């Protein structure tokens, strides 16, 4: 039985380089890489300095292996397409090391997709657990959420 993960990773030094064409190219490159490597990428969205993905991981795959492929191939491609980007980023890496992840149930997929798709609008802070809990339906209807801060998810 597959596992599902909501994954987030950032550009190197949180540089806000994924606006305009860079973000659109990354949103195109990640699914292309996923298809080529037989990874089921259910959703992807980019924000200025990070990306959100919804990934299905089969028993034959590992999440670290999948992310190594997706991040590595997308970085290589974006630097080939935009050679001057390395100078703008002041680094030879496009992505930061590591990632944030949350395992989700199949029932949570629609709500997490909604959360991922709203990230581009910049209305919500990705570090805000309260918004995530509301978007994913984890706060019961009528309950008053209290603001929270701290770690992602």
Furnish the topology, listing elements before pairings:
Blueprint: E1 3-10, H1 20-36, E2 40-47, E3 50-57, H2 63-81, H3 85-89, E4 100-104, H4 109-118, H5 129-135
Antiparallel strand pairs: 1-3, 1-4, 2-3
Helix pairs in contact: 1-2
Uncertain stretches of 5 or more adjacent residues: 123-153
Q: What does the overall shape look like?
A: globular
Share of residues in strands: 15-25%
Count of helical segments? 5
Cα Rg: 16 Å
- Termini separation comes to 24 Å
What is the helical fraction, as a range of percent? Answer: 25-40%
Alpha-beta classification: alpha+beta
Summed over residues and divided by their number, the pLDDT gives a mean of 82
Task: Provide a concise account of the structure shown.
Helix content is 38%, strand content 19%. The protein is an alpha+beta fold and 153 residues long. A four-stranded antiparallel sheet has the order 2-3-1-4, sandwiched between helices.
Could you please describe the fold and organization of this structure?
- The longest helix has 19 residues.
- The relative contact order is 0.20.
- The protein contains five helices and four strands.
- The protein has a four-stranded antiparallel β-sheet, sandwiched between helices.
- It is 38% helix and 19% strand.
- The chain starts with a strand and ends in an 18-residue tail after the last helix.
- A hairpin with a 2-residue loop joins strand 2 and strand 3.
- The chain is globular and about 45 Å long.
- With 153 residues, it is α+β, with helices and mostly antiparallel strands.
């Amino acid at each position: 039985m597959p596992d599902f993960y909501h994954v987030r990773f950032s550009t190197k030094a949180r540089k806000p380089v994924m606006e305009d064409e860079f973000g659109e190219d990354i949103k195109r490159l990640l699914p292309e890489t996923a298809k080529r490597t037989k990874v089921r990428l259910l959703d992807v969205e980019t924000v200025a300095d990070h990306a959100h993905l919804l990934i299905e991981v089969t028993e034959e795959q590992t999440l670290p292996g999948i992310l190594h492929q997706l991040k590595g191939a997308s970085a290589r491609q974006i630097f080939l397409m935009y050679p001057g980007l390395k100078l703008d980023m002041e680094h030879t890496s496009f992505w930061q090391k590591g990632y944030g992840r949350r395992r989700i149930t199949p029932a949570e997929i629609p709500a997490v997709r909604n959360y991922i798709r709203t990230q581009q609008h910049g209305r919500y802070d990705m570090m805000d657990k309260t918004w995530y809990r509301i978007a994913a339906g984890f706060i019961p209807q009528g309950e008053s959420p209290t603001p929270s801060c701290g770690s992602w998810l």
